[in-house]
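Entry 14. Two folds queued back to back today. First construct below, sequence then structure tokens.
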Amino acid sequence: MLFDMETLDLARSYKLLSSTIVPRPIAWVVSQDANGAVNAAPYSLFNFFGGHPPIVCIGMGQPKGRDKDSLANIRATGEFAINMVTASLAQAMNTTAVPFPADVNELEKAGLETAPCTRIKGRRIASSPLALECRLQQIIDVQPSSVIVVAAVQAVHIDDECVKDAGRCHIDSARFAAIGRMESPGWYTRTSDRFVMQQLSVEQWEERQGPSN
């Protein structure tokens, strides 16, 4: 079935893409305003787009044309932390997605403790096995409903038990027990079911094809 995107409104276009581009990693963003008030919220339009420089991007909606708290804080300070959502932290993450007023600390509502960052002034979620300290590079307006936040990763915090070889940056990703976002409303997936597939050279691929006729 063909869907012509130009014929769809915002709600249906978003629903179609968010239901088909799956699974998606979740950026659990912890930010703070100019006065140091902390905010936490999850965003599933997220990934990394370069290793050197280390660039990540997050899509953030602007309901009714207004910035969400995370985006307002990022504009104000230029800094934020991205935390990984694991299966054990799923309910806490869901609590931080509740649309509390701006003066409510979602981390306190979710019963989450924070730890200080090292390269930025903000905080990170202490119980998350992975946290990225990020500094804003640019905000790209995607009219009329959203923006893309482009940031450079300044530091990475990883639980010791997830690190296989620090010198080579070899990480045991399976130990994270991360979850990903699926379709709305409310569907997620675990990353515990994995398989290995070797990337082939041209010579290896040709060898597997057998002799040609």
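Second construct, same run, same settings:
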Amino acid sequence: MAGSVNKVILIGNLGSDPEVRYLESGSAVAKFNIATTETYTNKNGERVDNTEWHRIELWEGLAKVAEKYLKKGNQVYIEGRIRTDTWTDKEGQQRTGVTIRASSMTLLGGPSSNSGGDYNQGGNQGGYQQSGNAPRGNNAPRPSDPVPPSMAAGNGDDDDLPF
């Protein structure tokens, strides 16, 4: 067996503006929560929304991008890994929490009343990765780009699919 994988992919909305701080070393760290909501119909036919909150942590260039472009309500795509942290609170109680340490982030926008447009100017909307912290190349599709005809549903090319 080849080992193990610790990978998380989330699409959610920010519950508040990111909290960004700079360490003595000059490193930037941003923390914020995002909400993901699962909607289903229960056995009584009632619609049920189940919202989960996820604590996100970004470092260095990603933290600076978050500080500049992310606002409460924005939708964001996050890839990262799960980290379990343990600490002692002010009352001396041992606490444990789960954080998602992001390795890449794509700004998807947000509610129309809150999008502001700042990160859409000058081609800044798009994916950012921890390794380079730079926007995707100009030829990479953005979430707002239309689906190419070759990928659109019902284009007739799926006749040979077994399902």
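Quick look at the second one. The two ends are 31 Å apart (CA to CA). The first strand starts at residue 8 and ends at 14.
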